[in-house]
């Protein structure tokens, strides 16, 4: 069983909801990333999404775009992200980490070469925003051969039939996007999400469902969590990365994540 599977089993046994936290690798500078990841864990994050910088992040709002631009200003590449993962794993062997990004960097490195390096670095899964489920077979196979998960996304406009198909093609967990639009654009509507998640969770057939987009603090996380297996917080954390002195980022992140974790508990 993967680290993701083990973590979700433990959370379910404890009756707790997953807190998944997203930051951009290399934001605001490469040396901040690993200490920031450890701070997320100290704050109570159950898993981490580590964003891979890419020049055309089509699903991201202004906040995460700015974080990606800060990373790209330091020429952070996919290879650099894997080096950061290796450094994180030297001190943390337990926290699941999923890389989130866009297809081009993975294609450029090559699926097999990436999967070999990612497995060695301790990556647990991949989210590729612009990879359709129908075209994911080759990448999924390369990942699964090295015991990594391919996490796929479902939108509010996805039909029940397609949600079931997507869930069957993915693994680790199913990422439900709470609204139509880019990251950080607005708060998630808990009532609308709750209504839709009944159908999505049935289609997922036991695969954990996490909700992202529009979850910014403890109150918004607590409003969504009863209807899902966990929540994803991203833009609010990236905003902190961008407006905080580098030396203070770990402490600020830890406190921010702790507020959300306490609200979920």
Describe this structure in words.
- The model has no long low-confidence stretch (mean pLDDT 93).
- α2 (30-43) packs parallel to α12.
- The longest helix has 16 residues, at 249-264.
- The relative contact order is 0.18.
- This protein is an alpha/beta fold and 265 residues long.
- The protein is 50% helix and 15% strand.
- It contains 12 helices and 8 strands.
- The chain has an 8-stranded parallel beta barrel, surrounded by 8 helices.
- It has helices spanning 3-14, 30-43, 62-72, 78-89, 103-109, 111-121, 137-145, 160-169, 190-204, 218-224, 235-243, 249-264; strands spanning 18-24, 47-51, 97-101, 125-128, 149-154, 174-177, 209-212, 230-233.
- α9 (190-204) links the parallel β6 (174-177) and β7 (209-212).
Question: Notable features of this structure?
Answer:
single chain, 265 residues, alpha/beta, eight-stranded parallel beta barrel, 12 helices, globular
What is this entry, summarized?
This protein is an alpha/beta fold. The protein has twelve helices and eight strands.
Q: What is the helix/strand order?
A: HEHEHHEHHEHEHEHEHEHH
The main pleated sheet reads as: 8 strands, parallel, barrel
Q: What is the overall pLDDT average?
A: 93
Query: What is the total tally of β strands?
Result: 8
What is the count of DSSP helices, taking H or I runs of 4+ residues?
Answer: 12
Portion in strands: 5-15%
């Amino acid at each position: 069983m993967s680290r993701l599977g083990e973590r979700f089993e433990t959370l379910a046994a404890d009756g707790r909801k997953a807190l998944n936290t997203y930051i951009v690798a290399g934001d605001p500078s490469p040396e901040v990333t690993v200490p920031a990841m450890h701070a997320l864990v100290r704050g109570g994050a159950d898993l981490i999404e580590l964003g891979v910088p890419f020049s055309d992040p089509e699903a991201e709002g202004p906040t995460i775009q700015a974080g990606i631009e800060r990373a790209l200003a330091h020429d952070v590449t996919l290879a650099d992200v894997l080096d950061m993962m290796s450094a994180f794993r030297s001190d943390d062997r337990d926290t699941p980490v999923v890389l989130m990004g866009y297809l081009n960097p993975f294609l450029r490195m090559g699926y097999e070469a990436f999967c070999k390096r990612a497995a060695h670095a301790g990556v647990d899964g991949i989210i590729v925003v612009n990879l359709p489920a129908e075209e994911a077979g080759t990448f999924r196979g390369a990942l699964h051969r090295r015991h990594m998960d391919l996490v796929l996304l479902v939108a509010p406009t996805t039909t029940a039939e397609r949600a079931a198909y997507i869930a069957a093609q993915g693994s680790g967990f199913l990422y439900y996007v709470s609204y139509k639009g880019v990251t950080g654009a607005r708060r998630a509507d808990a009532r609308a999400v709750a209504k839709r998640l009944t159908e999505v969770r049935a289609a997922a057939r036991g695969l954990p469902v996490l909700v992202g987009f529009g979850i910014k603090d403890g109150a918004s996380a607590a409003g969504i969590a009863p209807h899902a297996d966990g929540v994803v917080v991203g833009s609010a954390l990236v905003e902190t990365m961008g407006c905080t002195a580098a030396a203070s980022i770990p402490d600020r992140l830890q406190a921010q994540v702790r507020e959300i974790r306490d609200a979920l508990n």
